[in-house]
Amino acid sequence: MRPLRYILAGVAALGLAAGSSIGSAAPARGPAPIRIGAMYPLSGSQASGGREEYHGLLIAARLVNAAGGIHGRPVTFVTANAPSADAAPTAVDSLKRQGVSIVAGSYGSTLSVPASAEAQRQNLIFWESGAVATMITEHGYPNVFRTVTTGNSLGRAAARYAAGVVAPRLHLAPAKLRTVVVYVNDVYGSSVGTAMADEAHAQGFDLRAILTYDPYHSNLRALVGRMKAMRPDVVLVAGYVQDAITFRREVLRQGVHPAAMVGTSSAFCMHAFGDTLGRQALGLFASDKPDATFSSSALLPTARALRARATTAYQRAYGVPMTASAVAGFVAGWTLFHQVLPHARSLSPADVRQAALAVNLPYGSEINGAGIRFAGAGAPDEGQNLRAISVIWQWQRPGHEVIVYPASYATARPLWIPLPGWKHS
After folding, report:
1. What does the pLDDT look like over 186-227, one tens digit per residue?
2. Which helix (H) or strand (E) segment is 312 a member of?
3. Rounded (5°) CA angle 317-322-328
4. Strand partners, 261
């Protein structure tokens, strides 16, 4: 954490008016910094992923600053801890009072929905770096931008993987694929789960049930009992780590044996999920954002070189490899600091928005394999990066997951299709 302290040490003493020119003349004591608000869950249940994403943002700033900053001005951060949805608007307000015009965040969908609304109300740019709930960019807020993929895309990708990879391996037509969709009924789960169900319908699956649960008052034993009676071949799941662990154990306890289970971000792909379940997680899939381990063939040469620099800097700073959350934070930061702000006339929301909408980068330009092209005014998903990327992971060794799809990103072939115990009759 020493690098984090050094980056933040002088933040309180540094100021910048939101409308000042980015390229304005430096004061006698050195160039005025560009202050960015950073709102993440740095405590509470989402703190681990929130810190990882924030650290990725910090590394992006470090690389930009090492190259001379933005027109000679270093990027610094004003932080606000938002451990819960209730705390998110207050965190945004505190950053506004401290004079920032851009707020990066937030890791969690339950945080981002109220935070993005408050940022728009306060006329701040909200730069979403990790949360995927589809509704974040469905409100038509002109000041809200997101660099990562959406819950809709993750959910549909899970169902498409079942249709394109799982069904052929089972020698079943999609119409014969008995499917159950299970999701937590909050803003994150509903955006992913409804997309799973919609795509299952579109693919012609035999969709037996859509089962939802309350993350705070769930009876997963009863839910799994209902699912068992439907004899699913495929189970599509959107939940959180602890309830996903409980769900998987209950599936095994009740002797439910689908051929495949495909989860999504915030659960099946998380290290805590695989580390806790060990061999019980083997063979399970997850639709999520990539980390830094996918095949380099998906990257353009400049992005390949940047990924090497970013992963080395992250490892040196924090002593661990870059996770998917850290990569998402880095990409959001690099896009903002390297590809948007250098071309903005000022830090005013109108000028930042204009510069962001002008960015047009092909797939493979960012270290996660994404491109950058934000949906413009009037689009159904205004502010969403239309060239965001998602992948399919699989747990293939205890505590170890690999990317298996799409082929250009994959580092291994999918195994355990079907899972042990499956029978289709």
Report:
1. 999 999 999 999 999 999 999 999 999 998 888 999 999 999
2. helix 301-318
3. 115
4. 235
For residue 319, give the amino acid letter.
G
Predicted pLDDT at 215: 83
Query: Model pTM?
Result: 0.91
Say if CB 235 and CB 261 are below 8 A apart.
yes
CA angle 271, 277, 278 (to 5 degrees): 85
Burial code of 232-266, b = ≥16 C-beta within 10 A, e = fewer? bbbbbbbbbbebbbebbebbeeeebbbbbbbbbbb
Q: Which two tokens stand for residue 171?
A: 């020698």
| Helical (H) or strand (E) element with 395 | strand 391-397
Task: Please identify every stretch of the chain with a pLDDT value under 50, giving residue numbers as ranges.
Answer: 1-21, 23-28
On whether the CB atoms of residues 376 and 368 are closer than 8 A, the answer is no
Please give the domain boundaries of the chain with CATH numbers for all domains.
2-149+294-358 (3.40.50.2300), 152-288+390-405 (3.40.50.2300)
Q: C-alpha angle 165/229/269, rounded to 5°? A: 40
Looking at the DSSP assignment, which residues form a beta bridge with residue 37? 78, 103
